[in-house]
Structure formats: structure tokens, C-alpha cells
Amino acid sequence: MWIDSHAHLDCFIDEGDLPDMLTRARASGVTGVIAIGGSDEANDKALAAAREHEDVCAVLGYDRDEADRAPAVGGLEALLSDPAVVGVGETGLDYHYSAETASQQCALLEHMLDLACACRLPVVIHTRDAEADTHRLLARYAARWNGPRDVPGVIHCYTGDGPFARSLMDLGFMISFSGIVTFKKADALREVARIVPDDLLLVETDAPYLAPVPYRGKRNEPAYVPHVGAAVAAVRGQTPEEVARMTTANVRRLFGNWPAAPDEEATS
Ligand SMILES: [Zn+2]
Predict the structure, then answer these.
(1) How far is the CA of 263 from the centre of ligand 1 (A)?
(2) Per-residue pLDDT reduced to its tens digit, 23-37
(3) Is the pTM of this model over 0.70?
(4) How far is the CA of 8 from the centre of ligand 1 (A)?
(5) What is the Å distance from ligand 1's center to 267 Cα?
(6) Angle (nearest 5°) at CA 56 between 52 and 221
(7) 97: buried, middle or exposed (CB in 10 Å: 19+, 13-18, 0-12)?
(8) Superfamily of domain 2-267 in the CATH hierarchy
């Protein structure tokens, strides 16, 4: 049983394909999907999907592309109290694609981190070519974190090096790997996937982007997350079943006891 800890469902919703996509996911052993927001439109769609489907939960926030638009954070706060919402994000810093908005990105990220603390929800962080600012802001946030569980958040679709991963894990963050770990040239990233402790490891698709081998170049979807998990398992010398069990337990420790474990469903 797998959980896709990070998927953008917008295109599936727009095409009316969400129910079928979830059926395909279940058929490949994926029993839960975290729907990720990042803009007003994406947040509304992720929340609607989570309200409608038991195996979907939502993470809502504003990502770096919204940084220069100064989004109305007040409206977001109301949405975060919905029981279908389990986290804040995705949010973070990307100096690879938009270094020119660095200071606005930092301001927006700080806003999101304040909101996460106030709502006691973990954050889903995107970071690329922004190591120093990411660590500085997350260290401050992790020190203030007083959520219901011990994990302040996850670094999603991790693409950094080993020392940066260690510095973030020292703050308590989980590290999530996407289909990139299946790519031929990703030896350095596979080495990072090898060193993450069992209790801080997550897997995701980041659908519809970054489809794992053998679907590389096609549209990604949650049904493919077992391919990510198998690649991670192979470098760690673990079985896919072990990685599925660990990463599912970790999703629960990060986002709450969701989805209900099969034995819990049977007894309730
Ligand atoms: Zn994403």
C-alpha cells in the first residue's frame, strides 16, 4: 500500500478524469493521494478533490510563482481550518527559475511559515538553488513549531545534495523523492535517497510532472508512485514492501492519521 505524498490534480480535475485516475491508482496499490495547491485556483481544486474523495487530502498555500502578486493570505487562513486540509504548501524558494523575485519569495515563505505555526499544520517545501535562505527561514520556523506531531514539514521533490539534506533533517524535516530518482543520470540523488533514515523518508509523483521510468516524458499520475518507491528501495537495500510500509507510516506521522489504516476501517 502506497501513498503519493505530493500530486497536482488540476489537469485531472479539468479533464473530468479524477475518479478514473484514482481508480487506476488504487489498482496499483496507491490508497492515498495528497493533493497540492499553490495558487487560489489550485487551492480551490485541491480542496474540492479532498472534500469529494476519501482517499484524497489537501495541502493549501501559495508557491513562489505567486510571490510577486502578493496574494491575499487572509482568505487562505479560513480554508486551512477545513478538516480535509492536512498541511500548508506547496511553498518555498526557487532561485533557479526566478532569482529576480528572491526577496518577495522569502517574504511569502515567511508568511506561509507563520500561517503553518498558527494553524499547527506542517509545511510542504519546494527549494531549488536557494540553500542558504531556505535553511535560515526553516530553522527559525522549526524552532517555533508546536504542531500536534513532531515533524514540522517535508522537503518535496528533493534535488539537492547530501549535506543540505542532512541540515534539513537535523531540523526535523522529512525528505521526499520523486520520479527523478529513476532517471539514468541521477546517481547523486540516489545516494541521498540511500542516506535518509527510515523515519524521514517519503515518496511522491509530483504529478503531472516528472513521470518515473518507464513512463518518463509521459503525463505522470499517482498510480506510478510504486515505480519511485521501487527505485528508492533498490538503492537502500530494502524491499518495495518495506519502503511502502515506512513511507505510509511517515505520511501519517507528518499529516495525521490519514487515510485510515485498513484494520482501523475494519473495526470502525
Ligand atoms: Zn509540486
Answers:
(1) 31
(2) 999 999 999 999 999
(3) yes
(4) 6
(5) 35
(6) 115
(7) exposed
(8) Metal-dependent hydrolases (3.20.20.140)
Rounded to the nearest angstrom, the distance between the alpha carbon of 61 and the centre of ligand 1 is 11
Distance (angstroms) between ligand 1 centre and the Cα of 36 equals 7
**247 CA from centroid of ligand 1 (Å):** 18
Summarised one tens digit per residue, pLDDT across range 153-210 is: 999 999 999 999 999 999 999 999 999 999 999 999 999 999 999 999 999 999 999 9
Centre of ligand 1 to C-alpha 7, Å, is 6
**Distance from the CA of 219 to the center of ligand 1, in angstroms?**
14
CA of 266 to the centre of ligand 1 (A): 33
Count other Cβ atoms within 10 Å, centred on residue 81.
9
Predicted confidence (pLDDT) per residue in 109-140, tens digit: 999 999 999 999 999 999 999 999 999 999 99
Sheet holding 56-60, edge to edge: 2-7, 30-36, 56-60, 85-94, 123-128, 153-155, 174-177, 201-203
CA of residue 183 to ligand 1 center, whole Å: 18
Q: Where are the domains of the chain?
A: 2-267
| 231 burial level (CB within 10 Å; 0-12, 13-18, 19+) | buried
